[in-house]
Design goal:
Helix content is 7%, strand content 78%. It is built from two helices and eleven strands; from the N terminus they run ααβββββββββββ.
């Protein structure tokens, strides 16, 4: 995949087509992100856990920014963009932990953990845009290309609830917490983007609607989030090979120049 992206960059910037490109217009873009994450992770309380189940869900975010179009032929254009994109995911998990400090002290916890991960990124796509040729008011298009993604900030919100059993005494407990700047996440990621959409020609301007899929190529090798709480004790999430993926529904408006 990395070789394909390098080849596409060469095609976009180093061919006679690119040298013949004419500035066509500038536009703005905004949209809704349906964001998710892949990777292996482990959440634990203390050191002795029995994991009873969990699920990973998408979360909603947004993207906003601008783009420029350099028209090469009637059907092919180069489209650089700059976007702010908010990604992430949600986790719901449950488990059981037991801690024994002495023969007289046994601490059991039945817990439910809910998390929301949020990552804000500056994305710089360099896209090839292929449009059906001809003078049509409505033109379907395909866009694809590499994306440079810069991590602007990350945050995880926790909602931890459950029951303590301390020497046979049942107690309810809960906690809400948040942490900024997750340790171990890359500051720079490479992604790929592929999208399908429609251009609506308004003569002096253009409306653009598309659906895009963006996914990380580079992995976050390891990451961790830790909290210390006097009631719950120490708990954390560790993980490997975290990758973001986003399905975005975007709307653009371009001024023809």
């Amino acid at each position: 995949m990395n070789r394909l992206l390098i080849l596409l960059l060469i095609v976009l910037t180093g061919t006679p087509f690119a040298s013949a490109a004419e500035f066509s217009g500038v536009g703005i873009r905004f949209g809704l992100n349906i964001a998710g994450q892949t990777g292996s992770e482990h959440f634990f309380l203390y050191s002795d856990d029995e994991y009873t189940g969990g699920s990973k869900d998408n979360r909603l975010g947004f993207c906003v920014g601008g783009f420029i179009i350099y028209q090469v032929t009637d059907w092919f254009a180069i489209q650089p963009e700059v976007l702010i994109s908010v990604k992430g995911s949600k986790f719901d998990e449950s488990g059981k932990s037991t801690e024994t400090d002495s023969l007289l002290y046994v601490h059991e916890i039945n817990w439910e953990n809910r998390e929301t991960w949020k990552m804000s990124c500056l994305e710089i796509p360099l896209l090839a845009k292929f449009t059906l040729p001809g003078k049509r008011a409505i033109k379907p298009h395909l866009t694809l290309g590499p994306v440079l993604s810069l991590n602007l900030g990350s945050k995880v919100d926790w909602s931890l609830s459950g029951t303590h059993v301390i020497n046979g005494s049942l107690q309810d407990a809960w906690e809400d917490a948040s942490k900024d700047d997750i340790d171990g996440l890359n500051n720079v990621n490479w992604c790929y983007l592929i999208g399908f959409g429609v251009d609506f020609d308004l003569k002096a301007s253009r409306m653009i609607v598309d659906v895009r899929y963006t996914a990380d190529l580079t992995e976050n090798d390891s990451y961790s989030v830790e909290f210390d709480n006097p009631e719950w004790g120490h708990y954390e999430r560790n993980g490997l090979n975290l990758k973001n993926n986003v399905v975005a529904i975007t709307f653009g408006y371009m001024f023809n120049l």
